[in-house]
Fold:
Amino acid sequence: MHSQEDSQSLGQKINQIVVHSSDTETMLQQISQTLAESFGVDGCLTTVIDEDGQPHQIGYWYKEEFVTVLQQWQSRELIALLPNQSELIAIERLQTTETEYLTPSQNKPLPFQSVLSIPICFQGKQNGLITLWRLHPYQWSDYEQERVQKAAESLPIVLEQISQANSIASLKQFVHTSTQYQNAVNQLTMASRNTLDLDQILQLAISGTSQSLQVERGLIITLKYSDLLFKNRPKHIIPKAKITVISECKNNFGSPTPINIINFSDQLCDDSSTLNKTFWLSECFLCQQALINAPEPFISNFNNDIEINKHQSKINPVLNIINLPSVLMFPLENQGTVFGFLLMQNSYSRTWKPEELALLELVSVQVSTAIIQNQTLRQVQNLVEERTAQLQRSLEVQSKLYEKTRQQIDQLRQMNKIKDEFIDTISHELRTPLTSMNLAIRMLRTPGISVERKSKYLDILEQQCTQEINLVTDLLRLQKLESNQTPLNLQIIKISSKLNDLVQIHTETWSQRGLNITVTLPERPLSLQTDADSFDRILHELLTNAGKYADSDTNVSVRAIQQGDRIIISVTNIGAAIAPENATDIFDKFRRGHGVTDKAIKGTGLGLALVKSLVQHLNGTIEVASTPIEQSSSAWVCFTLTLPQLPVPN
Structure:
C-alpha cells in the first residue's frame, strides 16, 4: 500500500512537470531531478530512444558535490556503459561486473559504482530508459526496484509525446534548414553572377555556409603546388605545396545539444585572424590526409585531450585543433586536381548529415568555379596588360630611337665641330713648330753664319722638336690609358716634397706674369701610396692649366688635406669663369676654353684630358668648380683632386 501511494505521488509530480514544462529539454531534466530526489540517489538519466534504438534526447540531474567525479564523462558515454537491455538491471558494484558491462574502449575511471536501470516501452517497443546511479556500492532493495518499475509505467506516453514533439521539431528544423541552405546557395549564385570581387564571393560563401551549418569557424584554403607534374604522382605521395588561408568566418555557436554532463568551462577560441596565413602542406597532417582522401570529404573528430596532444605537433597551429578539434575538409577541384578546401571546425564532436554534405558539395562547386573564373580573368587581364605594355614599350622604344637618332645627329654635328676645332688646333700646334724648325734650318744653311747664331738656331730646332715629340707622346699615353694598357708602379711619396718641387718649377715660369703661388699643408706630414709618375703629371698639368688661364698679378693656391685614407688636393686660381654646361666638357680631348685663340694661349687641349685619364687610372676623382667674383668678370676656378691609397697587389 505504501509503495502504491509513493508511485501515485511520483506519477502526479511527473504529470505536473509535463503540464507546466515549456520545452522537452526542461521536462526531461525536471523528471530526472524528481526521480533522483524521490529515490535519494546521486544522479539520474532519463533517455528518449528513437526508432533505431539510439539515444535521441537525454535529461540528466546530479548532485553538485560530484562535479569533479563526472566531468570526464558525457551522458551518452554513461548510457554506453550498460548493454542494450529489455528488462530491469540492478548492479550493486559495477567494478565487479566490468567484463560484462564495460566496453573494451573505456579506459577512464568509473564515474559510479551502483546502477539501477529499467527500459521504458510503448506499444511493445522501447522508447526510453531510466538510469539511477550511486557513486558508491549500494544494494538495491526489492522495494526500490518495484518503485522504479512503477515509475517506468508512468513515462511511456510522456516519452512518446516527447519523441513525437522532437520529430515535429526536427521536421520543422529540416524545412527551416533546407530553406537556409537554399538561400545560401542562391545568394552565392547571384553574387557570382553580379560581382567580379573574388574576396566578396568567398566571404559570402564561407559566412553563409558556416552560419547555415551552425559551424564555429569556417575557412577557405588554397594549395599552390611547387611541382607542375604533381598530377602524375602516386596518391600516397605528398606533393610540395604551400597552403594559404584566403577567407575566414567565425561564429559564436556552441554545442547544439547539451551532451556534456558537466559544462565546467566554455570552449576557448583564438580571436586572432588567420586570413592570409601560409604554411607548407608537409607541416599539416590533417591537410595531407584530406588531400589523400579527395575527392571524398575528410572528417576528423578528436574526442579527448589524449588524441589532441598526440597529433597536435603534426597539425599546423592555423587549424587550432586544441580549441576546435572537430574538422571537416571538403575539397575544391578543377579537372580532377585539388587546389583547396572548404574547412569547417567546431569545438564539439559532430556527425555530419547527408543534406549538410550536399550543401557543402554545392558550395564547393560554386567556390571552385568562382576561383577558376577569377584566375582565368586575371590571366586574360594580365595578357591584355602585357600586350598593352609591350605596345607601350614599342612606342617608347621608337620614341627613344628617334630621340637617340636626333642626339646622334647632334653629336655628329658636335663631333664635326670638335673635329674642325681639333684640326685648327693641331694644325696650329704642328705648323708653328715646323715653321720655326724650317726657318732655323734655312738660316743654318746661310753661308758664313756665326757660331753664336748657329747655336741659337740649333736651340730653336731642339725646342720645337721636343714640343712635337711631347705632343705625340701625350696622344700615345692617352690611348694607352683609355685601353687600360698602362701598368701601375706603386710607391710611397711624400706630398709636401712633391708639391714644393712642382711649385718651385712653376714659380720661375710664372714670375714674368706676376703670378704668385701659395701652398697650404697640414702640420702632420702627408704620404700617399700611388704611381709617382702619374701623380707628378697630374699636378704638373693642373698647375700648368692654372698658370695659363689665371689673370695676371693674381695668386694661385695649392692646398692638401687628408680625409680617412684619401688625400685631397685643390688648385685654385682667379681667371675666366667656366660655364656649368662646360664643367665636364673641358676634360675632353682637344676641348679648350672659349677665347683662348684670341688671347694667344698656347695649348693642344690634351692636358686636362690626360689629367682625367690619369686620375681614373689611380682610382681617384677630379672635379672643377667655378664661383663668380662679385663686381668682376673673373671667377674662382678650383680643381679638386681626390686620390686613394692604392694597395699593393698580391
Q: What stands out?
A: Residues 98-106, 256-270 have pLDDT under 50 and may be disordered. The chain has 15 helices and 18 strands.
